[in-house]
Amino acid sequence: MKKRKLKILTLTLVTTMLVSVGQSVLAHTRLDIPTMTEGTRAINHLLGHTCGENNAIGTSVVFPDGIDSTILVNGQPHSGPITDFLTNYGNNAQLIFNRAVFDHMDEKTDPNGNVVGFWAGGGPGVPHNLTMATQFRLTAPSIEPASCANSVKVYVSIATICKITGVDQFGVEGVVDLWTHNNLGTPFDRVSAEDDGPAPLTINRDLTKNPLPSSCSAGVDVEVKPSAAQINRDMPIKFEGQQVWPQ
């Protein structure tokens, strides 16, 4: 009986979504508010679509944790920590609990209790012809005053699940849409010639309250990407201590 209940749950895993009545299909899964000013807070949504002709029955979302993430400065690797550019990165996203459509949802946390992603499920799924929006609250971290960062772009990795399978079936059409990096070397990598899968969130410096130091000239642009180890750890969905996706 317990095994049967678990199977039923895995078959109905789905994000907490606000389902629109429109028929349009978005080219990518992206943030409703992709740009924020440092230190501000907003209710945001991940706007996306299902897997072709199949209904969406789940999603998994991962934010770079900043611990072992890849940091680029003007496209070049940076060997220092994320605190070189952001003063309060971590635990910036909070899933909004909403049972209007689906029953189960939860946040994913790191060993320190910081939210690094979320999932939700336990509902009928999202029809393949409808657009969907995953609602959450997002607080933009503050940019380190002593840094030369004009902006920090954080890449959010997303999986839209349409069938519960193992990773060996990820390449089959209609199973899962992976809006992830294409070059990390994980089973969750997006198959694409370009690394354009994740949803970018750009945090802009408030140049009035937090001007660039005079030594910075034009400043720099920073990017933050998750590590392969984090994606392998945080992308799977666990319910009551058991991994239910991938199988």
Structural notes for this entry:
This protein has 247 residues and is mostly beta strands. It has one domain: Sandwich (Immunoglobulin-like). Helix content is 7%, strand content 35%. It has 2 helices and 17 strands. Strands 3, 5, 6, 7, 9, 10, 12, 13, 14 and 15 form a 10-stranded mixed sheet that branches. Strands 1, 2, 4, 8 and 11 form a 5-stranded antiparallel sheet that branches. It has a two-stranded antiparallel sheet with strand order 16-17. Strand 16 (237-239) and strand 17 (242-245) form a beta hairpin. The longest helix is centred in the first third of the chain and has 10 residues, at 2-11. Residues 1-27 form the signal peptide. Keywords: Signal.
What are the low-pLDDT stretches, counting only 5+ consecutive residues below 50? Answer: 5-26
Please state the average pLDDT score: 87
Number of helices: 2
How many domains comprise the coordinates? Answer: 1
| Beta-strand content | 35-45%
Question: Topology as H/E string?
Answer: HEEEEEEEEEEEEEEEHEE
Helix content: under 10%
**Coarse structural class:** mainly beta
Shape: globular
Number of strands: 17
CATH topology: Immunoglobulin-like
CATH level-1 class: Mainly Beta
CATH architecture: Sandwich
CATH superfamily: Uncharacterised protein YcnI-like PF07987, DUF1775
For the sheet with most strands, the description reads: 10 strands, mixed
CA radius of gyration is 18 Å
* Distance from first to last alpha carbon: 19 Å
